[in-house]
Amino acid sequence: MKMFSVSHKTAFVVDHCPYMAESCRQQVECDVLTKSRGQGMIPLAPVSKSLWTCAVECSMEYCRILYDVYPLKKLINYIVSDSEFHILNSWRQEDQSTHELMSALAAVGPPNPQEDPECCSVLHGLVAAVESLCKITEYQHEARTTLMDTADRVANRGRIICLTNAKSDTHVRMLEDCVQETILEQNKMAAGSDRLMPIQQCELVLVHIFPQGEDTLVSDRPKKEVSSLLTSEVHSVRAGRHLATKLNILVQQHFDLASTTITNIPMKEEQHANTSANYDVELLHHRDAHLEFFKSGDLHMAGSTSRDSGLKETVTLKWCTPRTNSVGGSELHYCTGAYRISPTDVNSRPSSCLTNFLLNGRSVLLEQPRKSGSKVISHMLSSHGGEIFLHVLNSTRSTLEDPPSISEGCGGRVTDYRITDFGEFMRENRLTPVPESPDTEASGKPPAERAKAQLERYTRYWPMIISQTTIFNMQAVVPLANLIVKESLSEEDLLTCQKTVYNLVDMERKNDPLPISTVGSRGKGPKRDEQYRIMWNELETLVKTHVAGSERHQRVLDCIIACRSKPPEEEERKKRGRKREDKEDKAEKSINKDSEDKSWQESERLKGVVERVKEEQGESEVIKDSPDSPEPLNKKPRLEEIQLPEKAKGPVSLLTMWTNRITVANSRKHQEFAGRISSVNNKAELYQHLKDENGMDLHENGKATR
Questions:
Q1: Is 197 exposed, middle or buried (0-12, 13-18, 19+ CB in 10 A)?
Q2: What are phi and psi of 309, to 5 degrees?
Q3: Which pTM value belongs to this model?
Q4: Which of 30, 188, 524, 616 fits a 20 to 30 Å CA distance from 267?
Q5: Mean pLDDT of the chain
Q6: Which domains, from first to last, does the chain contain?
Q7: Is the sign of the CA dihedral 105, 107, 113, 116 positive or negative?
């Protein structure tokens, strides 16, 4: 960013040629005592000022306002041009005062109407103004010396304000061309000089002054770019009060000023000391004094009076009861800014009374005019060190008051901020003064840089809301969270971090619950496996932000990755288990649906079987055998002993279950009869070896056949 704006240097060029001695034709009454004047006394004739006098007075008002609001770093170089140029002051700070300029102007005197107009020209002053802008000011020299490596940041920009009586638009264009050529020539000369600086930007403001009652020969023209180095604008103004208003507007535009009118100022009348009247005083100040008005849109703008030709606006503020002294006024109210002021009409009686009142140590509160509601005091006038300031008061909640409770949800509906953790965070990052010593210099970074680096490490991952974090709500993670933010880890710190990770693995193995927030979720929140997955992800995110710190940080991350990753066999087994459970759920749903359709068909057929089973169970319970006696043949096995075949698919009927039970019970009692095992069509074959011995076939009745 370039230092020094266009407003840093302003060159005033005032035409001192013979035609500036012409009257402005605005009458000024000198005899104001019309009622008290005695008979026979001849009234004083009105007088009119010359164009030169109007130009000098208005330019001096421009300088006065500038010096009042900006006592430093805004410089003016005043040049008078006739047959040659006359530089009345320099860029030095001690020459920047209206007293110096008025003394020099008194030595110059008014224009000589008898002088040859052909020898006089305002061009001499314009050339001198360009040469003056190339000179280095004290502030520019100081900045260039301080910024030796980046001296190109010190820009040389300025403004030329020329007050003259031009002949035509062609004459104006000729003046612009002259300034453009002079800038190019001076830049070439300044390129090889250490005492001069090339002009990087120049604004030319030509103010054409003509008497009242005449038509202007020069037309107004807004700002236009003549070249990359020069912009120009033309103002055609009648002399007198119109010229004063125009320069008042220009000084506001050039230096970012604003106007405030203080209304209802009670003042005692000079002739009647027991009566008082309300007056208004207009003040100029920096525009930032109305910054809060511009943000809120609560501006009370009033149009200018007929005296100002309706060309400017002012903010209206009402007078309030003054304080007894300036100390009490500044201490009782919280100020957000203080800006120097300059009265618009400094010689008027209301302005003089107001400034004297304030310079005597009093302060005045100003309120916004409102038609309804309570009054809002927004500004205060008070003096400090012989200068008057407009103080901006904070009309909203003051930052010096108690802050709103966090439970009120300041900033939205979020109320679960980590307030306790933030207090601990501030204590750990508190700044303390460090004396300069060889030890601090040898450590490398200065203390301020080390503090910034620590603050950056601590805030790389720091959730602000409780419901947005899991690990910072767990006491088991505190040792790791406190150590991982360090710039370097020791071997002991590394063991502590690894131990913390192992404790988390043990918690997961035991299936311990985690402090997972259920805000915004329905039900009981995520399942236990999902909770630990969220916890491991957040812990890994925290450690990853500090991996670049040292090699031990990377080892902590490797430990986390190794502990949270399961063995391939376990992962595959879990996957198969989940798939099997899903298939069984689906099969169970389909089986239940089919069984519901078929159950009613078999219900009647199985009723008898069920009843018989119950009867046989009742009979078997009556028989009581000794422990040593073998199980009786008629004792039936319990229903719990019924086993389904391994390859059974689908629903199983009660009859099948009973048959399987009988088979199991019989197998427990004795060895199966061999003939039953080798039976054909449920019939046992007798004399199985007879055919092999006699070579005969046997029938059912035992007779042999050949």
A1: buried
A2: 65, 15
A3: 0.58
A4: 30
A5: 78
A6: 6-30+45-255 (3.40.50.410), 259-393 (2.40.290), 457-570 (no CATH), 651-706 (no CATH)
A7: negative
